[in-house]
Amino acid sequence: MAETRTAAHSAIAIRRWDEVARPDQLGAALDAIFFEASGTKSFASEEVRAAFRERWLGRYLVQHPQWAYLAMAPDGTIAGYLVGALGEGSGFDDFATAAQQYPAHLHVNLAPHYRSQGIGAELIEAFAKDAARAGAKGMHVVTSADARNMRFYERVGFQPRARTTVNGRELVFLGRRL
C-alpha cells in the first residue's frame, strides 16, 4: 500500500504496520498513545494493566498485523494508530447479532496534539478500503455512550446500531456499511 497523505495534515503518512521498518521499536510510543486515550486510567496491578493493553491493542499487532495502520510524521513520530480485525466479533455477547452485519472492527487512537486534523478519519478510510476489498460488508466500533469520540465516529459514517450496559456503563455499537 502506498503512503497516503492526509488532507488536513499533509506531513502525516498512513502506513500499514507490516510495511513499517522496525515496528518492534514502536511499542513505547504506541503504549503512550493507547493509555493516554483510554478511558481507564488506573489499574489494580501491573498484571491487570498489561492484560488491558493486550486485549485492546497488543493482540491485534500479533494476531492481525495486516489490519494495523500507523499515522507517522516525517521524523518517525507516531501521531496515532488503528488496529482491527475482520470477523472476530465485538467482544460483547449483546452485540453478536449486530457484529454479523458489521463484521470488521477497529480501535483508533491519536496523540492529543494530532487530534481534530483529519488523521483519525484517514486511518479509518485506509482500514475501510482494505476491509471492503477483503469482502467485509460492514465495520464497527464499540464505545461508551458518553465518550468524546461518539461525534467523531458519526462524522466518519458510523451509526448507533445497538446498546448495552456493562458494569453500570452504557456501551454503544456503532456500525458503518462498506
Biggest sheet: strand arrangement = 1-2-3-4-5-6-8-7
Q: Quote the CATH topology.
A: Aminopeptidase
Structural classification: alpha+beta
CATH H-level homologous superfamily name: Gcn5-related N-acetyltransferase (GNAT)
Instruction: From the alpha carbons, calculate the radius of gyration and give it in angstroms.
Output: 16 Å
Q: List the uncertain runs.
A: 1-8
Spatial separation of the terminal alpha carbons: 19 Å
CATH architecture type = 3-Layer(aba) Sandwich
**Residues in β-strands, percent:** 25-35%
Question: Biggest sheet, in brief?
Answer: 8 strands, mixed
Shape: globular
- Helical residues, percent: 25-40%
| SSE string | EEHHEEHEHEHEE
Total tally of structural domains? 1
**At the first level of CATH, what is the class?**
Alpha Beta
Number of helices: 5
Mean pLDDT, as a whole number? 92
Count of extended strands? 8
Provide a compact summary of the structure.
The protein has 178 residues and is an alpha+beta fold.
Blueprint of the fold:
Layout: E1 4-5, E2 13-16, H1 27-37, H2 46-63, E3 68-72, E4 78-86, H3 96-101, E5 104-110, H4 119-133, E6 138-144, H5 150-155, E7 159-166, E8 169-177
Parallel strand pairs: 5-6
Antiparallel strand pairs: 1-2, 2-3, 3-4, 4-5, 6-8, 7-8
Characterize the structure shown:
The chain is of the alpha+beta class. The chain has one domain (4-177): Gcn5-related N-acetyltransferase (GNAT) (Aminopeptidase). 31% of the residues lie in helices and 29% in strands. It is built from five helices and eight strands; from the N terminus they run E-E-H-H-E-E-H-E-H-E-H-E-E. The protein has helices at residues 27-37, 46-63, 96-101, 119-133, 150-155; strands spanning 4-5, 13-16, 68-72, 78-86, 104-110, 138-144, 159-166, 169-177. An eight-stranded mixed beta sheet has the order 1-2-3-4-5-6-8-7, with helices on both faces. The chain is globular. Residues 1-8 have low confidence and may be disordered.
